[in-house]
Amino acid sequence: MEPPSVDSTTIWITLKLAFYTTVILLLVATPLAWWLATTRNRLKPALSALVAMPLVLPPTVLGFYLLILMGPQGAVGQITQALGLGLLPFTFPGLVVASVIYSLPFAVQPIQGAFEQLGRRPLEAAATLRASPLDRFFTIVLPLARPGILSATVLTFAHTVGEFGVVLMLGGNISGETRVLSVAIYDHVETLEYQQAHLLSAGLILFSFVVLLLLQRFNGKRRWQPL
Amino acid sequence: MSDIRFRFNVARDQFRLEVDSHLPGQGISALFGASGSGKTTLLRCIAGLERTPGGHLEVAGEVWQDANHFVPTHQRPIGYVFQEASLFPHLSIRRNLEYGWKRVPARQRRVQLNEVSDLLGIGPFLDRYPAQLSGGQRQRVAIARALLTSPQLLLMDEPLSGLDVPSKQDILPYLERLHEDSNLPILYVSHSPDEVVRLADHLLLLEQGRMLAQGDINDLLTRSDLPLARLDEACAVLHGELAAHDEQYQVSYVNITGSSLQQKLLVPHQPLPIGHPVRVRVLARDVSLAWQMQEHTSISNILPARVVECFPCHSPHQTMVKLDIGGQYILAKITRRSEALLNVDKDQLLYAQVKSVALMR
């Protein structure tokens, strides 16, 4: 039986991974979602499909190609080596990169949906009230899309916490560095440590429930109603 | 010189707009036409909400759009009222009102929040949210919000069409007051003859993306070559000013502008000061004609008039007679039988008996 301190490191790494992934994804997904929601570009369908790919691909496929891409012979690997960053697979930053790609649709789609629901009218009204495009984005678009952004945050975070396949392919199972919860649970079950597996699994169930409950509370709490 | 000059060419799948004209830079100009006639598109072009290559727009001598540049909407000194109030649901009424106001440089602000909320009666719900207001209240807030940007031109896209009749009756007086109290030019899109007659000084008629005609409201309402004069509710609008009150009989007298004979109309009593400009609507079906001044009649408004022309209207047994009363026109809808009996002819002098008039401020 492993000492509990090992599992607590694992929990810490998992939360750290989910946190970084969520922050990075919000910064990436918001402009991307805005572009997808407003563009009439011919490339939109192709890009939408690309963003949605992680939803349908087996995580192992994604992990496999990321491994190759970031490996010593891969394009990304060459770049990171040239920059003196070393190789990303089997490191924590490598996990973050993989998670960002793997969870991309969970961030983009709710935000894009919220943006599309806005329609043109509030923005046109704001423009006639002297608001510049950037001003409109921050004072009208973001506040009105808040429920979508909140959903994206929660889904991304929770999805990253629960990620398994990509991590296993790319991060391996280095205790204290890249081992995350889902992998730890798998290990516990493999070695018949059911009590440990129960502890972590039940913890995850509780965590998911609480997070979704908080989301409901947040969205119900706003003072205004949509028109 | 403060004209609004424009030329737009818009081609969409099912729709074309081709206009090249100008509108006066004062008073209320109505853009009038059936749905699909292009009036909203024209308004959106003027606001800069539609980008139309090859368009040209000049307001009060300033170029807002030509081949080389396009002033974006947020840099145009306009106010815009949409068909639906389009308030920001996440902001309180007060913050909705302040949204545009705050974005106008302080020295350009000519309008303050208190004035406008008094004018439009929205003081009581400043701290509520849009979803808590009725449609009519919301539209009043939208008008106030547009006014608070101290615009040089106010654009209104059927601001009343989405409202029920009581709400409309609620807002119309505010618009009339706005018209009187400020010299802000207003472009008002409408398909309701009623609103146009009440509000507009000037009319631009659109049909299937083309301009049919434009000009003074009195002129256009009575022109035989335009559809308005053939409507069942065809009417004329006479400009005048309040001349006297008669408290005993609860009536007021209106001097008709431009008539050398100082022709007066008797209207129901109006609580307005003497000299106040008013407009009077005369429906064509309320006007009958006579050869002589009738001595014994209950009709109190009998005006000497000169026949300008006769033209057919929708019903085959009736005819429309256009009459000149001192420079302004009215219409009389009479039967073709009466036309023959009276022997109505161009330039003939007759008496127009007006059964009832509606005074609009």
Largest interface: A-B, 24 and 28 residues
Please estimate the helix content of chain B: 10-25%
Structural class of the helices, strands and pairings of chain B? alpha+beta
Straight-line N-to-C gap of chain A: 57 Å
Whole-number radius of gyration of chain B? 22 Å
**What share of residues are in beta strands of chain A?**
under 5%
Quote the distance from N terminus to C terminus of chain B.
28 Å
DSSP helical segment count of chain B: 8
Shape of chain A: globular
Strand % of chain B is 35-45%
Q: Uncertain segments of chain B of ≥5 residues (pLDDT<50)?
A: none
Q: Domains counted in the coordinates of chain A: how many? A: 1
Q: Please give the share of residues in helix of chain A.
A: over 70%
Strand order of the largest sheet of chain B: 6-7-8-3-9-10
Task: Tell me how many strands of chain A there are.
Answer: 0
CATH level-1 class of chain A = Mainly Alpha
Element string of chain B (H = helix, E = strand):
EEEHEEEHHHEHEHEEHEEEEEEEEHEE
Rounded to an integer in angstroms, the radius of gyration calculated over CA atoms of chain A is: 20 Å
Protein architecture, described:
The complex is a heterodimer of chains A (227) and B (361). Chain A has 227 residues and is mainly α. Chain A has one domain: MetI-like fold, CATH 1.10.3720.10. Chain A is built from 12 helices and no strands. Chain A has helices spanning 4-38, 44-56, 59-70, 75-82, 92-102, 104-118, 121-128, 133-144, 146-161, 165-171, 181-190, 194-221. The longest helix of chain A has 35 residues, at 4-38. Chain A starts with a helix and ends in a 6-residue tail after the last helix. In chain A, 35% of the residues are buried. The model of chain A has no long low-confidence stretch (mean pLDDT 90). Chain B is an alpha+beta fold. In chain B, 21% of the residues lie in helices and 35% in strands. Chain B has 8 helices and 20 strands. Chain B has helices at residues 39-47, 93-102, 113-119, 135-147, 165-181, 193-199, 217-221, 336-342; strands spanning 4-11, 16-23, 28-32, 56-59, 62-65, 78-81, 153-157, 186-190, 202-207, 210-216, 235-246, 251-256, 264-268, 277-283, 287-290, 301-312, 318-325, 328-335, 349-354, 358-360. In chain B, the strands form 4 sheets. In chain B, strands 6-7-8-3-9-10 form a 6-stranded mixed beta sheet, sandwiched between helices. In chain B, a hairpin with a 2-residue loop joins strand 4 and strand 5 (62-65). In chain B, helix 4 (135-147) packs parallel to helix 5 (165-181). Chain B is globular and about 65 Å long. The model of chain B has no long low-confidence stretch (mean pLDDT 90). The chains are: A mainly alpha (227), B alpha+beta (361). Chain A binds chain B through residues 121-122, 124-133, 135, 139-140, 143-144, 146, 222-227, and chain B through 47-49, 72-75, 78-80, 82, 84, 86-91, 99-100, 103-104, 129-131, 145-146, 149.
